[in-house]
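Let's do one together. I've listed all components of the complex below, 864 residues spread over two lines.
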Amino acid sequence: MERTNVAIVGMGTVGTGVAQLLLDHGDRTGRHAGRTLWLKRVVVNDVNKPRDADLPEGLLTDDLTTVTDDPEITVVAQLIGGLEPARSIMLQLLESGKDIVTANKALLAEHGPELFDRARELGRSIAFEASVAGGIPIITNIGQCLSANQITSLRGILNGTSNFIVSQMEEYGADYSEAVREAQRLGFAEADPAMDVDGSDAAQKLAILAHLAFGARVHWSDIPRVGIDQLDPADLGYAKELGYRIKLLAIAQLNDCLELHVSPTLVRMGRPLAEVREAYNAVSVVGDAVGRVFFHGLGAGQMPTASAVVADLIDTAVGRTKLTFRTLELWSQREARVSLTDHADVPGRFYLRFSVDHHPGVLAHITGALGHHDISIASVIQHEPSQDGDNQVVPLVIMTHTAPEGAGQAAIDEIDALDCVRQKGVRMRVLD
Amino acid sequence: MERTNVAIVGMGTVGTGVAQLLLDHGDRTGRHAGRTLWLKRVVVNDVNKPRDADLPEGLLTDDLTTVTDDPEITVVAQLIGGLEPARSIMLQLLESGKDIVTANKALLAEHGPELFDRARELGRSIAFEASVAGGIPIITNIGQCLSANQITSLRGILNGTSNFIVSQMEEYGADYSEAVREAQRLGFAEADPAMDVDGSDAAQKLAILAHLAFGARVHWSDIPRVGIDQLDPADLGYAKELGYRIKLLAIAQLNDCLELHVSPTLVRMGRPLAEVREAYNAVSVVGDAVGRVFFHGLGAGQMPTASAVVADLIDTAVGRTKLTFRTLELWSQREARVSLTDHADVPGRFYLRFSVDHHPGVLAHITGALGHHDISIASVIQHEPSQDGDNQVVPLVIMTHTAPEGAGQAAIDEIDALDCVRQKGVRMRVLD
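Okay, and this is what the predicted structure of the assembly comes out as:
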């Protein structure tokens, strides 16, 4: 059987999983590629570090030139995280004629245009299935399987750490910091989970998908985003009372322009997205021909991510990636096909919660402020205060009808300034 | 832009949808293929029949040789249903050097080995994404995206007609024949829905997936199957009382051997497969690296199916299909990688319902018969008879622990022969 020589650069969790699949299941990749994917070199920082993978003698090196100078190696799984030296190494590998497979979404979100331009100039390809939604093959599904469609809507749970934390808070009544510690204990959150819980990670993935599905041109940092790091268990309780669950959703919605944002959202129970638990990811895509297609799977973890990397290695070895890469609408030289909606104009229903004095006339003040901004009310929850006495503060929960984002923000700013309001109001979007 | 000339043979519902996508959305296919997919010829039986599609002058013909003799046409969407003349036309098209895209699952299930052999001999390809699960790209996901995995389990709701009928029975309390009429009225069932409701259609699709995912060699008619055509609304009610919904599941489960069958199954509520409603399809796949991935979408209908056909046309025009087709484990010359489990040995929990005399000792007779076959009982529902009097017949519902299929059948045969049992017992599998 013919052989494609492969190298791995970076032997962390995912790299170890990829090596295992290549070394232990050569029969499988041989069957699906019609050729052997032969792991010829593994480049690491420190060859003496103890490792989980049982690598054959002579594979491990700390010298990248053993890959770049070896013309027999044609495909490289570049699995170093972060921006540098990942970016420089990727460029070196491209210059030396290698096709690349990567799982590094942060690198693509930051330096995608440079890397893709360089790959195209050099006639090379970059495959990146593992960079979004781990084991869910969403890149191939959008870039290839649904290519007869104009995608009109894309809603994703793209950050498994956030979904795990919110699930813990919802199911076990944990508060945010307890849930984060549990996620860290179980390996679902890093020691510093900031990029996960503040919505940045989901925005990076959404940026990649928005390029691919809509021909958008947007830097992830320009996508409006709110994370789950301010989420109060009280809101999970009220959401449940109203028939919703809270999920960190990444949304791309095409009308005349493209709306992009990441935010905690009340999703009506029974909708597939509402039922995504633990560290799972999910993506709901609407195409104008196919209708709604829903994907659900593990968005991270060693073997789900390795599954995506090895599928890309097979696609690259077989020659499919080269054909697909040419026409991908991702950091291409073409002009953007859509412009982005001004975030203030994006319509939505809102869930609002205020802590207010338990006085006569308070509800009138608040509904008056909503009225100033043409926001009408769909329902209200106000429970009686738990104890008698003066200076009581009660929560007031309001579900609105559809209104623009800007009006929602202006109304809540006005309400926060009222004397009867005791702390900053909470505002979240609602998906019915 | 370079051009790939395409023909459509067969202008039914799906053909019309494919023509619409090619004619109205050339920009889209051009963008994703990097070349124009130019519809050059449409072959039909009767050129004078009124049609929904607004075809340009000169496209329509009843002469297949205008395609087979035209070397400019390289890809043909063969969209004639049934076995003949579809088979002969497909062979003619292959002989004349065309690559084929088809949605005809019955033809593949029956004549797949012959057609695939011939295509390989001639260096041509057959793409068939639309043949299973309509708009869900399950063929590409299994054949390409999950190729780093050994698939270990595949469970599908693959027949939208059956799922629609059972949903109607469940949600509106319709009986079977009412639900069939409603499905026919809405276009979800054909005038003669026999192949849909008796499990044959699902078995044909399961056979294709089992070849693809497991390297099995099996003719669809050898897959044990039970349809929904005998389903009694009473069982939907008891299932609900027990916390389950009934779904027509197509199952492939790999242990030492491969278990394949199609049958109405009690699926625990809350599982994604239990929540698939109306005419939707869904597939839940487990791979040893990726874990469980779940796909949900429209399994039939004009535009979802056309979406799959046009994606295949793009893949074929671009050259991806040719690369994939070479290594597909579908009717290849390779030996089967798995043998099939003897159906009698397949383990499962059972839901059983009997109509029995309301006499002392009846439960003892029935549990005794189960005991003879080593089947232990997990739970029992027996309600009081609705009226007093002699000769009362009451339903007895039993959920068992896991037992082999053969023991389940033998026990129910023994119970059916008891004097206290008034009509043939009902037995369905349970998925927890």
